[in-house]
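Same chain as my last thread, 416 residues:
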Amino acid sequence: MPDTNAFVDKGQLRIAAVSAEGSIPVENATVEISLTGEPEQVIEQLQTDRSGNTETIDLGAPALEYSLEPGDTQPYSEYNLKITAPGFEEVMLAGVQILSGQSAISNIRMIPVVTETPPYNPLVIAPHTLWKLYPPKIAEAEIKDIGETGEIVLSRVVIPETVIVHDGPPTDASAPNYYIPYRDYIKNVASNEIYATWPENTIIANVLAIMSFTLNRVYTEWYRNKGFDFTITSSTAYDHFFVYGRNYFDNISRIVDTIFSNFLSRPNVRQPILTQYCDGRRVSCPNWLSQWGSKYLGDQGYSPLEILHNYYGTDMYINTAEQISGIPSSWPGANLTVGSTGSKVLQMQEQLLRISQAYPALPSITPDGIFGNATQEAVRTFQRIFGLPETGIVDYPTWYKISEIYVAVSRIAELN
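reply #2:
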């Protein structure tokens, strides 16, 4: 933990609390924030509103330059969160990471109390992979031979609704499995693997590599065909570094929401490419993406694809999945805004109306298939609640966030 005297900059943090049953917002939850090194000294106390959100607050962070070059000073500060609410088990989260100039979100799923003395299980966020040395990736072929078993389930690339993450090496039978929404998984991994302070094009290139690797595991049923019951592990030696309960950063979140249906391909190869990478400083990995190297290329103005070509070769290209699981209907293909009409507008309005039953801050609208001022205000409020740019326009990220929240609050997925 860095010396608090080194906290010359500020980062931001917002907490969002929902019930683990039904994804209903938890109102009036109390959030106590303390430095990880001084857990008994509360420095901020917040309350969640009726949408389950706290206000966004400033917290001390080390100077920006520490996250822009490898060095001996930890580039992020760490805080503890204690979240309590009547009728729910207490949540203790240790090691929330704050970076200079970056806004972070900590999503908290609160479990309703079922016993008088609920178990106390604090969640600890492990150090970032660029700060602490973890086991390096065991090299694998980037294209899997799946013709031998014939057990491949998917005939085309599908973005899964959830991935099952085994929190340890594949053979550790005692490690828990977590069911994580696909986009949340990618945001978690990216926040663990790179710094949100890096150039946007660098972040996009790294997110594409993380997604393509993950979708290769999904497409090839890699672990299931080996007799396991999960999609991917949290071990850096085998897969990506995933930390259950960690906070992620707004800019990474928005990038993932915008490109989550993409993956990386090579000509005449159906499966997503298993795009491996390393930090490029403490661990060398020829022909793989170097995380620090990609940062420097971003500094020089390289595009995401140019960064990827630099490491994986010029025949790598960005592809788009044909199908996204777990949604009521696919993206209409163009933004919905005031004046838009039709079945896609009607469906979006019906979903917002259902969401408003769980989120009372969201205005109740009458679905009529016409995008008017009332719908625009409802969309803008939805975007504010869920941390999206408040445009009042249903763009690609907003469409799929509405679908995600609708499915969560209506439990439609459990009925299908």
